[in-house]
Fold this sequence. Notes:
It is a single chain. By secondary structure, the protein is mainly α. The protein has a domain at about 35-90. Helices cover about 75% and strands about 0% of the residues. It has 4 helices and no strands. The protein is elongated and about 80 Å long. It starts with a helix and ends in a 14-residue tail after the last helix.
Amino acid sequence: MIALVVGAAIAVAAVLLVALPFLRARVPDWEQTTTADEERRLVLIEERDQALAALKELEFDHRTGKIGDEDYRALVGPLRRAAAEALRALDRPQDSPPPAANPPV
Length: 105
């Protein structure tokens, strides 16, 4: 009888020990220390990843025949521009403003 109680106590302790990290409502350190620049960079990375994924999917659909040539040409331009814009924004130093749309000649 004592062995059964000790075994049950060990089992409960093991379950609590394993579940403890999941029961804590602790915010990770990296979430607490994000600055506005870091958040901006994360948004740009997300935009870049979405544009590149959309380009990859569009290219696949075009190669498999799901999308015709005319539709492909109409869709690929804006996606390429969005990806290039996000890449340029990521390469640009944090303090510099974005370049003018129509620079003076």
